[in-house]
Amino acid sequence: MGAPLRFLTGITTTGTPHLGNYVGAIRPAVQASRRPGTENFYFLADYHALIKCDEPARIQRSTLEIAACWLAAGLDPEQVFFYRQSDIPEVTELTWLLTCVTGKGVLNRAHAYKAQVDKNTAAGVDVDAEVTMGLFMYPVLMAADILMFKAHRIPVGRDQVQHIEMARDMAQSFNHLYGEHLVLPEAQIDESVALLPGLDGRKMSKSYDNVIGLFSPRDQVRKQIFSIVTDSRAPGEPKDTEGSALFQIYQAFASAEETQKLREAYAAGIAWSDAKQLLFERIDREIAPMREKHEHLVNHPQELERILQAGAAKARGRATPFIRELRQAVGLRNLADVPGGTKKDKARASLPAFKQYREADGLFYFKFVDAQGRLLLQSAGFASPKEAGQFIAGLKASQALPQDGKAAPAAGVSSEQVHAALKELADSGN
Ligand code: TRP
Questions:
Q1: What is the pLDDT of residues 400-421, one digit of tens each?
Q2: CA of 47 to the centre of ligand 1 (A)
Q3: CATH architecture of residue range(s) 350-427
Q4: Ligand 1 pocket residues where CB is under 6 Å
Q5: From the CA of 11, how far away is ligand 1's center (Å)?
Q6: Smaller CB count within 10 Å for the chain: N or C?
């Protein structure tokens, strides 16, 4: 068994979730959280919400609403890490450490910032009008969210891929300067998740005003479903499933068998009102039990608060020791600490070392670094930790690099330097 693969998802706490969010994000994430051999982090990105919203009551209300939605949808806070970003002070601390290794030019290229600059340019106003440093720094805060918990994979939409790449770059810069501390994350785009059409057939989205609320009152959901746009075919006339928003929404909730039944009903000329009633009942069957739980949580905020506090304590169990390690790495240290500590630690700390880890591709890798943490050798992926370990044992024994492409010296490192470091390690008896 290898180390668990860690997945991390940030949930922006603005707005009220709709069925499109449920089918496209919440439901698949809740299912994914149950995979064995994984650790799953879900957090309410309330610091990020501050960038877009300056109404305190709305910030509080959205956080409550959205936390209740995720728990009602089946997320088990015992099984995952479920916390509020602003409860983890280590995240803001890491944001600063990353800020110091991030080029301003990199952030100049971030899509959200650039879009505002382009808009300002087109309007002939100052390029930075309406640009807060919050907007500009958005990618750094997001990188801190990810790197804080050593997440391997970040399930996101295409619009977020640039942010994950920036997080990777920041991790690389940090590691280059201070040694291998941060894990490089990878975006994971799930193409199989269906985009749910809205009432008018376009993608369901708040900005199109075509949504069906996830936990709106039942009669309101029914009314919304009855307002889905259909064609003018009369009862008895066969209907097309192709391009039918009603059919697609049904499919997102129904089993293959149920979907086939509706397909046959379409061919047999089901009345639109009957099809809408079927859709309403099918959705309600899935949502009704969750609606009760949602209502309970929204009406008992102290219960939700307790869950989030427990989640924060669990998450800080990881964050607190890690930020201590990172502070140490950059030199924010107790002045009385002699570098290296005990004589034995000191001897070990001044030696080159192998570092094994697992990447987001599921393979096992190692790095060989010198005493200062600089990369000497980078391996390719191995199928198991055992194979990686055997390869390392071979390197230690031969003190030379086999020409099989399984490991290569880092840029600017010669094979003599690798050999010297291997020899130094062997001579020390490690
Ligand atoms: N920016 C993400 C969004 O708008 C939310 C988010 C914040 C996030 N921090 C994150 C997502 C870290 C993944 C990982 O959807």
A1: 888 888 999 998 898 889 999 9
A2: 11
A3: 2-Layer Sandwich (3.30)
A4: 8-10, 12, 45, 48, 142, 145-146, 154, 156, 160
A5: 6
A6: N
